[in-house]
Amino acid sequence: MAKKISEKTLKKSFWNWFFWNGCSQQAESMLGMAFGQSMAPVVEELYDTKEEKAEALKRHVTLFNTEAQVGSICNGIVCGMEEANANGECTPEIIGSVKTALIGPTSAIGDSLWVATIIPILLTICLSVSQANASVAWAGPVLYMVIYPVCTCIISWKLYKFGYHTGLEGMQKFMANGKLDMLTDTMTVMGLIVVGALTASFVSMSLPIQIVKDVYDVTTDTVLEAQVLFNADSMLNSIFPNILPLGLTLFVYYLYAKKKWSPMKLMGLILVLAAILTAIGFACGVYA
């Protein structure tokens, strides 16, 4: 009788991956130990002898890395291949080759879809909810803590089952028909739109340069004190709204992408500039 992985074992394998995929990440095998832990229930059910189980576990604790949420499809595909191997329809060498081949595409899709798009969009929505009403500012974090794990779990489980049922052939068809490139490009554009929206909404910078004078009003024969005759920030925003936050963002991006500055170095630069410019503002009476 052909061996088949039970639904209970598949779920146990998925939960092992879902909850513990990052618990053993290290430089030598990256997510290899977590992948082995995920495959442990499957190996236990499919193989009979201690030697077969040990050999199967050894090939799953080797170097492996992906984006964990979308990467759950890899676990599903490998489960299907281990099932085939236990029935004499596959070889360990093919399983190892497929695992290695899946690292690149699943990482690219996962980083573009999950890290660069879904998480920023969800964070933007939750931040907006918190800022909309100070009395319910707690609603944003609570919303994020509920939606993120629930959506992550549902999507990861669907991909896991998809990988198990369609196998490598389903992944190959998805990659061969151009949908992978289309999805990656779409997620990249959407991610850029989200970053642009975040810049406009949450990056603030002003130019507090004004010309203020007392003005004599002939019609009322009175002196109007401290009238703003010129406001540099209002003038710039009337020509190009939020040009200063945009300029600051592009400057930071230039240092990060072109000059290879680290995030810590960039935050240090912004902090120093803010301190210097604030001190100049107090010295000149701008913030008096």
Describe the 3D structure.
The chain is mainly alpha-helical. It has two domains: 194 residues, no CATH class; 74 residues, no CATH class. Helix content is 70%, strand content 6%. The chain has ten helices and two strands. The chain has a two-stranded antiparallel sheet with strand order 1-2. Strand 1 and strand 2 form a beta hairpin. Helix 1 packs antiparallel against helix 4. The longest helix is centred in the middle third of the chain and has 41 residues. The model has no long low-confidence stretch (mean pLDDT 85).
List the helices and strands and how they pair.
Blueprint: H1 7-20, H2 32-46, H3 50-58, H4 72-86, H5 92-132, H6 139-176, H7 179-202, E1 210-217, E2 222-231, H8 232-239, H9 243-258, H10 263-283
Antiparallel strand pairs: 1-2
Helix pairs in contact: 1-2, 1-4, 2-3, 2-4, 4-5, 4-6, 5-6, 5-7
Question: What key attributes describe this structure?
Answer:
10 helices, 2 domains, mainly alpha, single chain, 288 residues, two-stranded antiparallel ribbon
Describe the structure concisely.
With 288 residues, this protein is mostly helical. It has helices at 7-20, 32-46, 50-58, 72-86, 92-132, 139-176, 179-202, 232-239, 243-258, 263-283; strands spanning 210-217, 222-231.
